[in-house]
Amino acid sequence: MQHPLFDRRAAVRAGALSLCGLAAGHLDALASGEAKAKACIYIFLSGGLAQHETFDAKPDAPAGIRGEFKPAATSVTGTRIVEHLPMLAGRAHLWSLVRSLTHKSNDHSLGHHIMLTGRGTAPAGFNPSKPQASDFPSIAAVSRAVLRSTTNLPPAVVLPDRIVHNSGRVLPGQFGGVMGSARDPWFLEASPFDPLHYGAYPEYDFDHQDRPDKPGHKVRVFGLPSLAVPHAERLDGRVSLMKRLDGQRKALDAHAGAGRFSAMHDGAVSMLTSAKVRSAFDVTKADDGTLARYGKNAFGHSLLMAKRLVEAGVKLVQVNLGNNETWDTHGNAFPHLKNKLFPPTDRALAALLDDLHAEGLLDSTLLVMAGEFGRTPKISHLSQFYKYAGRDHWGAVQTVFFAGGGVKGGHALGASDRQAAFPAEAPQTPESLAATIYHALGIPQDALWHDKLGRPFSVYHGEPMMELF
Q1: How do 415-416 and 423-425 pair as beta strands?
Q2: Which pLDDT value is given to residue 70?
Q3: Cα–Cα distance between 278 and 294 in angstroms, integer?
Q4: Which of 74, 124, 206, 356 is deepest in the core (most CB within 10 A)?
Q5: Angle ∠(460,462,467) on CA atoms, nearest 5
Q6: How far apart are CA 380 and CA 291, in angstroms?
């Protein structure tokens, strides 16, 4: 990694803070920019969303490329998306697309690291099998480090769980990395990991290979989340929300008393007893109308929780819509997208757009939706594993969804080629994606974060996509 070059003003500010005796682990952002958004919800589709089957259909391509789905009209003249996202199609005037984001990896682990950190290359010592202390920090971790919290809530939260492969390994790129584990974002764990089940449980639970359930399998349930922080013990048992929060508060108290947490972590004690936070967590008890609009499943519950957390003061919420590489559609792609993945995604995202728009919060809340990569132009069939065809990993191009936060609706930035294989116009990078999020949140381009040794590093590694605003 390269240390930033400082201008005189940045050096004076940093020196002044040092003279005041503030440790690097306790610094807020050195400056504040003019925020277009008060918050960002980064929706991450682990597994890789197929551009052909969603927002970049190629109906004139050969059958082996265009796929089974047809494009359909939207509320914006000239903008067409897949026929199986009708609710999003009716709200196209509220969102925009970037159809030309590109990076060089077709590997799940590195792809996750790239798109969750906004860094297009692997860090030194990268290990695809597990997170490393030398990894780049995630966008959520950077946001937590440099954004000021205006309430007793942390600036950045990840829900409803960590991204875990079906082998049980945790995907790299989600954590503080070289910042140190104390700068990990806050993780809300709403359901135990299940290696063979994917999607918006329990309504749209499925298995990519349609394998039969093992004896004794229990349906996954979206429960009251456990707030996971570095070094804090996990609490077991199905207890009431208040008891769980009280238990975690006591655990945090004990650790803080032992000097294992910084002042930022000590603030979690009061956060965990906040009535507003408890209300944001307990989305399964929302009124019937709200639950029906969002969907009574993990996708709907997660986006409703994200909205409530933003309302309660969280600056960045990363929502993992599907663990275990749910969107990894190597096979059975068309029936699973049509019947299992698109319905809950379409419903929940449309409800979130509607609520933010109706409540006057869309202009101040940036929505971003992406995966670790796109899918191959050519359809393939791995008949030894899947009954039907699908597409493989493809980092060369993917479509990213944007809405709110000053983003103009009904717009498309960039384009892919005739097969949706490579960018043909205005290529964008993971660095520009991260920069767009940071810019919308008002983080200035000279902002810094510090590693666990106190060394400063630049937040920005690319230019924001200003054409979106």
Answers
A1: antiparallel
A2: 96
A3: 19
A4: 356
A5: 115
A6: 38
